[in-house]
Design a protein that fits this description.
The protein is an alpha/beta fold. It folds into two domains: 103 residues, Aspartate Aminotransferase, domain 1 (Alpha-Beta Complex), CATH 3.90.1150; 236 residues, Type I PLP-dependent aspartate aminotransferase-like (Major domain) (Aspartate Aminotransferase, domain 2). It has eleven helices and 15 strands. α3 runs parallel beside α4 and α9 runs parallel beside α11. The strands form four sheets. It has a seven-stranded mixed sheet with strand order 2-10-9-8-5-3-4. The structure holds pyridoxal-5'-phosphate. The site of pyridoxal-5'-phosphate has 13 residues, from α3.
Length: 351
Amino acid sequence: MLTFAPGPSKVYDALPTYLQDAYEAGILSANHRSNAFMSLYQETEQLMREKLHMPDDYKLLFTSSATENWEIITQSIVEQASFHIYSGSFGKKWIGFAKHINPATDGLKVEANQSIDVANLEIPEDFDVIAITQNETANATEVPMAVIEGIKDKFPEKMIAVDTTSSMAGIVLDFSLADIWYASVQKCFGLPAGLGILILSPKAIEKCEHKGESGRYNSLSFILENAAGYQTHYTPNVLGIYLLNRVLKDLEEIQHIDATTRDRMQKLENAVAQSKSLRMLVDNAETRSKTVLAVTGSEDLITSIKKTAEKEGMQLGSGYGPHKPTSFRIANFPAITNAEIDKLVAFLGKY
Ligand SMILES: *Cc1c(COP(=O)(O)O)cnc(C)c1O
């Protein structure tokens, strides 16, 4: 069964080879203080620079998930409070976890079809971090890089943290626009779940040092101390890191992936636009995600389309939260081949 679910999502077809190689290379039994592991970490960080254009002076850190990164950011970087701009369930969860640690956390909810109005955006002085869910997997919306740039220019004294869990490795991210970026690997990286990625600029690292929080197993100061020598703060998911390394090695440079992602999304959107009975969940092209498509229709139709798709060997992603019965979602992630997207486009064309 081919899955179009946006996380966990289809893994790369080369995964069986990578897994066999990992076993044979002996890395799975390597100690995380060994040279073998340290080289793997260092090489993976370098590949993030070469393939995803992570800046040279930004640091790659490994955590367990994007969810863990939500807590780490509030716990170890935020000094006053974070201000969250969000439109869907993942952004809402982030602000929820942040509030639990720091009750001064606040934010602004925008509608899925609503572009962030940067000109009229007001964020009081009591907030030192702006939290943005760049790609909201739940409702298939995105915050374009140009909007993040506008926010950065308007609030140069605040630090921006960006959730790119379902867009990193699928589209070009301009890392220079923010100091904190994170993802996990079961979306655009096309890997099994269980590894979180946290990317920090020198300014974010400085802020963590300034705050001086320490003593927890995932205190950022502790993570950074270990990462300075390409080690980790606990016995890490070495298999996950090895697989990430292999995926990055085989990946085209991100500008090429980005072009394919946009091209394929256009095809999918055209199929929906031409359909008599289906509509895009997000009408505003400016806020529509490039990596996740949400399609809506009557409850009966959605149920029947999902059933028919399964008979043809395709699993459509369920709608999320309130949209569950009347929508389905499609992951437009790089591990899904062009032929597989074409098959789906032809299928949607029948409705
Ligand atoms: C999937 C997802 C998460 C959660 O990722 P985990 O690895 O399960 O913690 C967070 N934010 C967004 C936008 C996501 O798509």
